[in-house]
Description:
Blueprint: H1 2-19, H2 29-55, H3 68-78, E1 84-85, E2 92-93, E3 98-100, E4 105-107, E5 112-114, E6 119-121, H4 126-156, H5 167-200, H6 205-209, H7 218-223, H8 226-234
Antiparallel strand pairs: 1-2, 3-4, 5-6
Helix pairs in contact: 1-2, 1-5, 2-4, 4-5
Amino acid sequence: xxxxxxxxLIAYGQxxxxxxxxxxxxxxxxxxxxxxxxxxxxxxxxxxxxxxTMMTDPGAVPKxxxxxxxIERMQLLNxxxxxxxxxxxxxxxxxxAHHCSxxxxxxxxxxHHCPWVNNCVGEGNQKFFVLFTMYIALxxxxxxxxxxxxxxxCVGAEWQNxxxxxxxxxxxxxxxxxxxxxxxxxxxxxxxxxxxxxxxxDETTIESMRSRNAMMDEEERSRNNSWKNLQLVFGGPFGxxxxxxxxxxxxxxxxxxxxx
Length: 260
């Protein structure tokens, strides 16, 4: 339901654009075209990021693989490294994996289960979730600007030729758009900042709640590198692929050891 609400709110913005915003085309063609391109670009990127977050495996651990044979084989390969078993899904629990009671699976580097994407946010799809929050925040801020600009334009023209709707209908449409934009701009901007902070600190939301950093030794702390952590999640050195919701989100840690 939360995912459907997300699509509905983006669709509502499209309704406002086509019924109200584009009516200023004749008076302000450059301004209208520019804002239309920006709005549609942010909308497409937000929807793509949302779908990728929903449909990408967050890092689910296979169920029921914690058999005696598997444990013996792993002990031979890893020596005396302790092996942990999840009592809820009977899987071998990798380091930093957590069991999700909603998905009923253990998720590698699980951050949280998000109802807005109907999926867990973990090792495999965290990049897409970060991009989703960023593009929704940008889309909301842009809609807020454009909505205020259109409202001022309509008031100045005494509601003449500024919308395909009646003045009361236009007013209600713009007021709800502004309310929606403010609400989601704040909410998603906070989520985006929280995610970036967690990535830089190499700490998931669950780990921060359990004070994992308090148990990390000094050697592990000294190896933490915010820039490298961002590269690991976004898939390479800083570039256009960081902002591309279709690019591979995860690269193994040894790939970027040179960046320390």
